[in-house]
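Morning. Coffee machine broken again, so started the prediction first thing and wrote up yesterday's gels while waiting. Chain of 301 residues, entered below exactly as on the submission form.
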Amino acid sequence: MSVEQNIIDFVSGFTIETTPGSAAKTPDYREHLKEGTLVAVTFLPGSDFADTVATAKKLKDEGMVPLPHFAARSVPSKEALGDYLKQLQDQVGIKHVVALAGAVEKPLGPYDSSMAMLETGIFEENGIESIGVAGHPEGSPDISDKELHEALSWKNAYAKSSSAELYIVTQFCFEAGPILAWEKRIREAGNELPIHIGVPGLATIKTLIGHAKACGIGPSMNFLVKQARNVAKLMTVNAPDKLVLDLAQNAKANPDCLIRKAHMYPLGGMRKSAAWLYAVQEGDFTLKSGGKGFTVNREIS
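Came back before lunch.
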């Protein structure tokens, strides 16, 4: 199989994120995304879950498949969790969710982790068919490596008894090396869950560095820092072509690799990131020499 086809396969079936705030500024998601696209709806600390429901409904009405986030530490009670799911099923009808701990230092209710929420079985009871769980290729500033290992082992065991399909979705990274090393490490430790790798969208290097610092991105941030040393490049829009190329090639070269697809974080805006993804998906790109990535052939503005 060609390098080009490997890249196309990796981005085909991508998922992408949105927020209720972005939804309020988006007249119609069909202006940017093809119908049937899976779109994750983030739930930020302090948010009102009604905004998540409204965003999921908007996505469904505009032909998308919503994947609402459930942030365990922001759920105030077992009753509230049940009510959140009931609202989504009554108003939207969902089959897919993402279950995360959430960036809240002190839990608002009984759930201090995604595992505490998952073990209730409430998602399966409400007809959920797939559940995304968090993966941390570069570690986490809030969780020790030992705890991350234990959590991943628990999720693998849970997946064997769940009627839902579990998969790992990761934070965004900027270089393939740390991701591939992490995938190999957790696979050798027993991970069997498929992995959707977080890919940063098209944004200026300055914007990407800001998001990376806020999210605790680790070693792969060095990729950006090296470029930022040239001040003139700070406002240059960066595309994740080298990352996508390296992940696609390595995933195809190693049949045991569990990396399956890309999950796009549109840090520089939905319009540019989606247009870039579709250009790649349609094979409208040219490889750079020496494995340095590729360039899409159409103008992305």
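The longest strand covers residues 165-172. Going to sketch it on the whiteboard this afternoon.
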